[in-house]
Amino acid sequence: MSEEETFLEFPCEFPIKVMGRSDVDMQSLVMELVSKHAPELSEKDITRRDSRQGNYVSLTVTVTATSKAQLDRIYLDLNASDAVLMTL
Length: 88
Description:
By secondary structure, the chain is an alpha+beta fold. It is 26% helix and 33% strand. It contains two helices and four strands; from the N terminus they run βαββαβ. The chain has helices spanning 26-35, 68-80; strands spanning 12-21, 46-50, 56-65, 84-87. The chain has a four-stranded antiparallel sheet with strand order 2-3-1-4, with helices on one face. A hairpin with a 5-residue loop joins β2 and β3. The chain is elongated. The protein starts with 11 loop residues before the first strand and ends with a strand.
């Protein structure tokens, strides 16, 4: 399988999990970063879950992915942010 090949068929709904500290407005940050690559993204496409102690937040962003390159750019931007601790 070459670098550009994938098992995904595009377009498809693709969930991206983003984790960070709760003292940052993660939802606004993630919305800003992801919507550059998926302009159709809206608040309803993001679900939030706080950690038990309330120190961390996990967001699941569901995008309509159109290509592997688009997903790669989204992950690169998210991981470049100091506020983002982990992406899946």
